[in-house]
């Protein structure tokens, strides 16, 4: 992008990022944790693609899906117990194989320096989210982090986005959501926030088919994608 382009487009005041599959590739550690949990019940491991397809609606749903895929659907009480067990297992794995998605740290730094308020709205629990972002040096760029356990209803409900925007003192009209899945598109629509999807995340459906305002190849393409949103407006 040329220098004149950079000064001519109007940037949003705030950008909210999804976490899993957008800022970080956490599926390998989540797979290890799920498999440790299953192993404890004498169940065989799931593959990385299987677990990837289960991420995005919160850890409780992931555990529910993992047991269902293992032909051992759990009762409500059984699921609660499995979820209690999952939390410390995942905390032991949390940043072993997890890596930032391509361009994540650079893009956050660039947008932060440009004066855009940045936040995270994820279905992942808050404490794990903060720990991962701190580990990868991204926490200091972020003015608001809202995890799935910080709201009554997780994405695709709009709560997490609206709470993050409130903390960033920004209205939905001045904001943008960046994510990897249909959950992010639906949450953004419900919150009245435009949405960009990034390829390479955990969506089971091609991201071009999810009705986002724009799709881009990686987070590094985000400044050019912002320009695209402006010219399309
Ligand atoms: O499902 C999760 O735990 C997190 O998913 P998200 O960061 O993509 O919202
Ligand atoms: Mg995601």
User: What's the arrangement of strands in the largest beta sheet?
Assistant: 5-4-1-6-7-8
* Straight-line distance between termini: 19 Å
Reported for the largest beta sheet, the result is: 6 strands, parallel
Residue stretches low in confidence (pLDDT < 50, at least 5 long) are: 1-9
The radius of gyration over CA amounts to 18 Å
What is the overall number of helices? 10
Cofactor: Mg(2+)
EC number: 3.1.3.18
Catalytic activity: 2-phosphoglycolate + H2O = glycolate + phosphate
Pfam family, one: HAD_2
What is this structure, in a nutshell?
With 233 residues, the protein is an alpha/beta fold.
Structure description:
This protein is an alpha/beta fold and 233 residues long. The protein has two domains: 3-26 and 99-232, HAD superfamily/HAD-like (Rossmann fold); 27-93, Putative phosphatase, domain 2 (DNA polymerase, domain 1). It is built from ten helices and eight strands. The chain has helices at 3-8, 27-40, 48-52, 59-69, 76-93, 104-113, 126-135, 159-167, 182-191, 222-232; strands at 14-17, 24-25, 99-100, 117-121, 144-146, 175-179, 195-198, 214-216. A six-stranded parallel β-sheet has the order 5-4-1-6-7-8, sandwiched between helices. Strands 2-3 form a two-stranded antiparallel sheet. Helix 2 (27-40) packs across helix 5 (76-93) and helix 4 (59-69) packs across helix 5. It is globular and about 55 Å long. Mean pLDDT is 93; it is low at 1-9. Bound molecules: 2-phosphoglycolic acid and magnesium ion. The site of 2-phosphoglycolic acid has 13 residues, from loops.
């Amino acid at each position: 992008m040329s220098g004149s382009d950079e000064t001519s487009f109007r940037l949003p005041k705030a950008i909210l990022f999804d976490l899993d599959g957008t800022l970080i590739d956490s599926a390998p550690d989540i797979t290890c944790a799920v498999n440790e949990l299953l192993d404890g019940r004498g169940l065989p491991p799931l593959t990385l693609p299987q677990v990837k397809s289960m991420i995005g609606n919160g850890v409780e749903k992931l555990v529910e899906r993992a047991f269902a895929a293992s032909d051992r659907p759990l009762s409500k009480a059984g699921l609660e117990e499995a979820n209690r067990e999952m939390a410390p297992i995942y905390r032991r794995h949390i940043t072993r194989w997890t890596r930032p998605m391509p361009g994540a740290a650079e893009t956050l730094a660039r947008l932060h320096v440009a004066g855009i308020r940045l936040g995270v709205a994820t279905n992942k629990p808050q404490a794990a989210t903060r720990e991962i972002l701190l580990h990868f040096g991204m926490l200091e760029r972020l003015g608001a982090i809202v995890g799935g356990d910080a709201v009554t209803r997780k994405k695709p409900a709009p709560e997490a986005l609206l709470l993050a925007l409130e903390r960033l003192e920004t209205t939905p009209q001045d904001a943008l959501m960046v994510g990897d899945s249909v959950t992010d598109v639906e949450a953004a629509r419900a919150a009245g926030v435009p949405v960009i999807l990034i390829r390479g995340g955990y969506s089971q459906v091609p991201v071009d088919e999810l009705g986002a305002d724009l799709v881009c190849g990686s987070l590094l393409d985000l400044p050019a994608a912002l320009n695209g949103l402006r010219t399309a407006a």
